[in-house]
Design brief:
Layout: E1 5-7, H1 9-16, H2 23-33, E2 45-48, H3 49-59, H4 70-83, E3 86-88, H5 94-102, H6 111-122, E4 127-129, H7 133-136, E5 143-145
Parallel strand pairs: 1-2, 1-4, 2-3, 4-5
């Protein structure tokens, strides 16, 4: 069975923000990965709920050139939900796992990365697709891949 990978916020933002540097490549990758299913019809990717929340926050940020409106961002998230993609949520062990992972970071700027890693760990998610590979390499339980990188390729 193929490992289940989560999709990070930056890939969603790049694929939906027309002015993003990686817009075309992120959009093409996301469309491809969202249409690849195994023999049972399952996707090889999932979306953590915190990623969807962060996506809405980032994509509607007024300092972006051509941000989405809140209603447009809501529609995008609803479209993902409607695909049937597995959405993972924080579990009851959230704080305990978060505190244990917090020990490996050196900066408060990594707190949201730790929170995302916590959700992945608590669900046994093996990998993360992200453009920010170095932010997540500190978590030894995760295989981290930049699908837009020429060296990384796509799984």
């Amino acid at each position: 069975m193929k490992k289940l990978f989560a999709i990070d916020t930056n890939l969603l933002v790049y694929s939906h923000h027309l002015e993003a540097k990686y817009h075309q490549s992120a959009k093409a990758w996301l469309e491809r990965i969202m249409n690849e299913r195994d023999e049972q019809g399952n996707l090889s990717v999932c979306l953590p709920a915190p990623v969807l929340i962060e996506f809405v926050n980032v994509i509607t940020w007024q300092q972006l050139k051509q941000p989405l409106s809140l209603s447009e961002a809501k529609r995008v998230v609803q479209d993902y939900v409607d695909t049937g993609i597995r959405i993972i949520y924080q579990r009851d062990t959230h704080i305990e796992t978060f505190l244990s992972l917090l020990g490996v970071v050196k900066s408060r700027k990594q707190i949201f990365d730790v929170s995302l890693a916590e959700v992945l760990k608590d669900h046994g998610i093996a990998g993360l697709y992200t453009v920010d590979v170095t932010d997540f390499e500190i978590f030894d339980f995760l295989e981290v891949i930049n699908p837009l990188s020429t060296e990384g390729g796509v799984r």
